[in-house]
Predict the 3D structure of the following.
Amino acid sequence: MARFLRNHRQMLYKTASYYILHISVAALVAYAVTGNLLMALTLSLLEPTVQAVAFFFHEKVWARAGGTPAPPASAAPAG
């Protein structure tokens, strides 16, 4: 595991920074729409999670449509 972390450090940092950016933008948009901070924070954490699940199934459908096997989960982009 330590070797994996060392070999992918930059990608992991980039993924983490994108995740924070995504949540921040989602929170700002949700707050602008709702005017409710708690609702904005809830939506900003919920939406990326739903997107990740949707992405998984999206990849499965595309793999089946193209007749090629889906890439391994580790190949999926973050965010």
The chain is about 80% helix and 0% strand.
